[in-house]
C-alpha cells in the first residue's frame, strides 16, 4: 500500500473482490451509470453530482448502482465502489434509485478511515468472511479460476473442478465468496487487467491476459463498473487484494453511524 504521504503523487486504485477504492481527479465527462454502488466524498470542499434530480452539491454522496449521473469536483475525490452482490442487506440501495448527500462530519469521518487504512501496513491476514464447512475446497477453486481466466469461464467447468453439481456449487460459491459466480469472475478479470496495465502493457495485452475478448470489451466492462475508462490508470498506484470486505465503512454505516445528528438528505 502506498503511504499516505504519497497519496497525491498520482491516482490510487485498490481493487478487492467486489469493491474498489479510487483516490484522484475526476475528469468531466458525459452522464453515465455503472454496476457498482458508489460512495464519494472530498475532505474539503464539495462534490457536485448531476442527474435527473438536478445538481447535488455536498461534501459527498451515496449513489445506488444503475443511476445515470455525472460527477464534478475541483480537487481529488475519494470514491468507494461496492458490487450490489455485497449490498443484499440494504434493500434501500438495491431497489430504490435515491441519491443521498453526506454531511461534512460524515466526509471527515470517512477521510479518517481512509488515512488509517493507507497508513496500516499490509497484514496478509485472511479475509474475515466465514467460509462453509467445505472451506478446504476454496483454495483449489480459486487456483482453478486463476488458471482458467484467459479463456471463457463456464460455471459447469468450475463446478466439475470442485467436485460439485452445478446447483450445489452456485450455492456454495455464493456462501464462500459473498458474490455470485459471474460477479466474482468479473472482478478477478478487472484485477488482472489493472495489474497488467500497471506493468506498462497495452490495453490489448491486458484484455487478452484477463480473458476479455478485446480492448474494447475491457473498456466497456471497466466503464460499466466504475464509470471511467481504464487507460488513464496506467500511471496510478495499483493495489489488488483478495478480500471481499471493503476497507472503509459503507452502507448503512456511512449514513446511520457517521453522523446521527445530521442525516444526509435523500433526493431523486
TrEMBL record:
GO terms for molecular function: DNA-binding transcription factor activity; sequence-specific DNA binding. This is AraC-like DNA-binding protein. SUPFAM superfamilies: Homeodomain-like (SSF46689). Gene3D superfamilies: Homeodomain-like. Keywords: DNA-binding, Transcription, Transcription regulation. PANTHER family: HTH-TYPE TRANSCRIPTIONAL ACTIVATOR RHAS-RELATED. Pfam families: HTH_18 (PF12833). It comes from the Bacteria. Residues 139-236 form the HTH araC/xylS-type domain. InterPro entries: AraC_XylS_family_regulators (IPR050204), Homeodomain-like_sf (IPR009057), HTH_AraC (IPR018060), HTH_AraC-typ_CS (IPR018062).
